[in-house]
Design brief:
The protein is mainly β and about 120 residues long. About 10% of the residues lie in helices and about 45% in strands. The chain contains one helix and seven strands. It has a six-stranded antiparallel beta barrel. A hairpin with a 7-residue loop joins β2 and β3. The longest helix has 11 residues.
Length: about 120
């Protein structure tokens, strides 16, 4: 299924970081690479060895995002969300790009949070 930016209601934060996903995180868990995230969903890539995800499949994803307002720029916040696969696109070589819509949105908007530190810095 083709996806487009016109369907997005909020800017996404492009962010490449490992994620773990599966139908049930207490059973088989697979590794993917986050591509971008918003409060309502996440896009990531994975290889075919974790199985071909289909639209409508239910997933649990575990991931981390930067905590932008922290004094330590390496501070991360770990999150777990359930959701539904909304689209999947083959990228070639056994790699797929997947979009998941969260059942419960994040309480933050990652792209907006990323811009806050630039507004909060002391003038030089």
């Amino acid at each position: 299924m083709e996806h487009s930016a016109e369907n997005r209601q909020e800017r996404r934060l492009p962010y490449r970081w490992p994620i773990w996903f599966g139908e049930d995180l207490t059973k088989a868990v697979f590794l993917g690479l986050m591509e971008d995230i918003s409060s309502g969903g996440i896009a990531f890539t994975h290889t075919a060895d974790s199985g071909r995800l289909k639209e409508g499949a239910r997933l649990t994803v575990r991931f981390s995002v930067p905590r932008f307002l922290s004094d330590d720029p390496q501070t991360m916040v770990g999150m777990t969300r359930t959701g539904v696969v909304r689209w999947t696109t083959p990228l070639g070589g056994g790699t797929y790009r997947v979009g998941v819509q969260f059942d419960v949105p994040l309480s933050l908007k990652p792209a907006e949070e990323a811009t806050l530190p630039s507004f909060c810095r002391e003038p030089q």
